[in-house]
Amino acid sequence: MSTTTDETTGLRQRGIIAALSGFAIRAPKSVLLIVGVAFLLCGALGALAPSQLSNGGFVDNNAESATAARILESEYGMSGMQLVLTVESEGELRDTAVAARGREIAERLRGDQRVQRVVSPWTDPGSTSALVSRDGKIGLVVATVHGDENTAPQQADALADQFVGTEGGITVRAGGQAQLWWDTAQQTQRDLGIAEAIALPLTFLLLMWFLRSAVAAAIPFVTGVAAIVATTGVLYLLTFVMNLSVFALNITTAIGLALAIDYSLLIIGRYREEIAAGRPAEEALRLAMRRGGRAVAFSGLTVGIALIGMLVFPLDFLRSLAVAGLAVVLLSIVLALTLVPALLAVLGARINRKPLREAGPVERGLLYRVARAVQRRPVLCALPVIALLLVLGSPIVGLQMGLPDDRVLPTSASSRQVGDLLRERFDNNATATVDVVVAAPDGALGDLTGYSRALSTVPDVRAVIGPAGTYVNGVPSGPGDPDTRRPTSAHLTVVTSVDPYSDAGKRQLEALHAVDPPTSEVYFGGQAQQNVDAADGITQGFPKAVAWIALTTFLLLLLLTGSVVLPLKALVLNVLSLSATFGALVWIFQDGHLGGLGTETTGYTIATIPVLLFCVSFGLSMDYEVFLLARFTEEWEHSDKTRAANDEAVALGIARSGRIITAAALLMAVVFTGIIASGVTMNRMLGLGLALAVLLDATLVRMVLVPAFMRVMGTANWWTPRWSKPLLAKAALRE
Fold first, then answer.
1. Percentage helix, strand, coil for the chain under 3-state DSSP, each rounded to 5
2. Residue 731 and residue 720: Cα distance in Å, rounded?
3. Rounded to whole angstroms, how far apart are CA atoms 567 and 666?
4. pLDDT (tens digit per residue) in 327-371
5. Whole-angstrom Cα distance, residue 570 to residue 558?
6. Which residues in the chain show pLDDT less than 70?
7. What pLDDT does residue 548 have?
8. Is 117 helix (H, G, I), strand (E, B) or coil?
9. CA–CA distance from 327 to each of 230, 252, 334 (Å)?
């Protein structure tokens, strides 16, 4: 472990915090040069990141739908993603011009090496009933595009560009899963620019207001911009070792910006306190980094612990966001411990418009008086807040989870328009078929005829197509397809009229599963099964994530404070504020209140949102908890350890850090508000959830419930078993 000596204070500082900040203070221009070079390099790499990001990862690789997909790919050559082209005319689809256009599209797609297979009513008359709208004015060309979730969307968009548009009264639109994922990726990239255009100017103006100096405001602003650019560079590098979700682009850049500004504010606040106390600039900076740097490291550690919780879920989408988030948190800490002290060392007294006078008594401040007012009537102040949070959280009991479909996009998106047409004007949903794989290693596939007949009698099933024939309502209606059987498996296609993401789709899937299978190995695939598998993956992983986050956070706060009670208090209050946030999101986006904030209400919440919101919000909430507890502990350790000293430590801690916490929370909320402007429902939900969670936590929880709770508990706040005190003293986390 490295050791440095603080010449101005006589204190010996150890560890990486002292090493990084010490180097930045001694050689600030060298640090700025290094950061500048890294900024340019990351900017160049970051420009390449969007094209390397993945759209998938929402389903467990070992789930039933994934198993069915692997068998279909290995034994039937069925891989890739669907591209659905709608051919619409005011006339009949049988009209010469319309038929010629539809046939041309289908034939050109069939002749393209990027396409595996194509069906249309003009080239496959037997499929007409499933591929023509009720009014006979829209026909579908359904193509399976070669490639995986990373390559197929781009290829689908390139194919669609050849045909989309209106010509001679015939309109062609592109949709389907492949086009949906491409449109989502493009919308996400555009949204990032919009979010930054909203967040950065507002952030700088707020920083000037809070810090009362444009020069001082420039420090967290520059650090935040550096975090954004560095994050994109890190994302690009991560794509070489893992599939990284396209949603990481918005989420991680927002987290990086928010944390970088948050940590910068903390250090600047500490530095100004020391300057106001009359210390020389260099001594003030070293003390600010020694005391504030520890809080920054602890804060980053708690955020990182929460993000690690996403690694226990069997979904690549969440795992990739966890890894990217961890890298961004580490990056934010490094910037706070290097770039911020380097800028402070160079700018010095110029961060203040006029020299700071020695700080007046904090007892005169508003936050101190508020804390004392809460302490005088803790129960009276706490009960209304608790009641409000419980009411806000009550809608969570009706939480329903599912996968995102085209309705996450605005109505201007081509894939959204196609999805709306399929739901509104077609009896059969061409994208909602259920694949059933019947497997038997010994080749004994059983009674496929009886099984197909039984499946076709399930409500809202239009037809079942397989090697034994085509069945409608239990009656044969066409010959079998010999290409749907292999020596050890058979493939049945269930054509359905229901939305796979709806409650009706879930009920139909349950009914299909309930049909007695001909073998012990039957696997269901398709969007309805993927939807169920995604929700199951979230449900199975959530208890493990909660246990990990709760246990590790408890241990860290125990080592920080030496108290058993304070970590438990932090966990309980965090859960309370997060429940309120979850409930508000369900009420708005799932139940459709407030117009769903401009989104399409589907009756369910996107399955990954609760996990993302829980892990990220929990980490950010603990960010403020660490700042407060560090202050409380500092004041308590220098007191006479009485009940009055406990109350004074809490009031002083809130008074001295409350302004920074409030400022940081408001700035974080502004950053996340930029995400709310996204055209993708998933991003909008997450942006609102994060902003609401941060504001609730930094105001009602930290400024009301924390002082009320700690007043009621008194000196018991600092209780720990007597036998553990020597151990905790040795293991206490220090710089």
1. 65, 10, 25
2. 14
3. 25
4. 888 899 999 999 999 999 988 777 776 554 545 566 777 888 999
5. 11
6. 1-14, 126-128, 353-362, 730-735
7. 93
8. strand
9. 10, 9, 11
Instruction: Measure the CA–CA gap between 170 and 175, rounded to whole angstroms.
Output: 17
User: Which ranges in 239-314 belong to alpha helices (H)?
Assistant: 248-276, 281-308
> Cα-flanking dihedrals φ and ψ of residue 638, to 5°?
-105, 20
pLDDT at residue number 523: 94
From the number of C-beta atoms within 10 Å of its C-beta (0-12, 13-18, 19+), residue 99 rates as: middle
pLDDT at site 354:
54
Q: Which two tokens stand for residue 410?
A: 């605005």
Distance, CA of 530 to CA of 403 (rounded, Å)? 8
Q: Residues near 10 by Cβ (< 8 Å), separated by ≥ 6?
A: none
Unique residue bearing structure tokens 């070293």: 286
**pLDDT tens per residue across span 557-575:** 888 888 899 999 999 999 9
Non-local CB neighbours of 367 within 8 Å, separated by 6+ positions: 654, 655, 658, 659, 703
Please tell me the distance from the alpha carbon of residue 271 to that of residue 283, in angstroms, as a whole number.
Answer: 9
CA 170 remoteness from chain centre: 40
Residue 49: strand, helix, or coil? coil
pLDDT at residue 392 in the model:
94
Angle at 401 between CA 396 and CA 407, to 5 degrees: 115
Which of 661, 650, 709, 629 is closest to 368 using CA atoms?
Answer: 650
Q: Are residues 131 and 140 in contact, defined by beta-carbon separation less than 8 angstroms?
A: yes
Q: Would you say 497 and 459 are in contact if contact means Cβ atoms under 8 Å apart?
A: no
Contacts of 24 (CB under 8 A, 6+ apart): 31, 337, 338, 339, 340, 341, 342, 345
If 0-12 CB within 10 Å is exposed, 13-18 middle and 19+ buried, where does residue 280 land? exposed
Q: What does the DSSP assignment read for 487-513?
A: TTEEEEEEEE-S-TTSHHHHHHHHHHH
Half-sphere exposure of 491 toward its Cβ, with a 13 Å CA cutoff?
23
Whether the model pTM is above 0.70? yes
What gap in Å lies between CA 79 and CA 145, rounded to an integer?
Answer: 8
What's the number of CA atoms in the CB half-sphere (13 Å) around residue 703? 21
Q: How far is CA 157 from CA 26, 85, 154, 163, 507, in A?
A: 54, 11, 5, 10, 33
Place of tokens 């044969």: 476
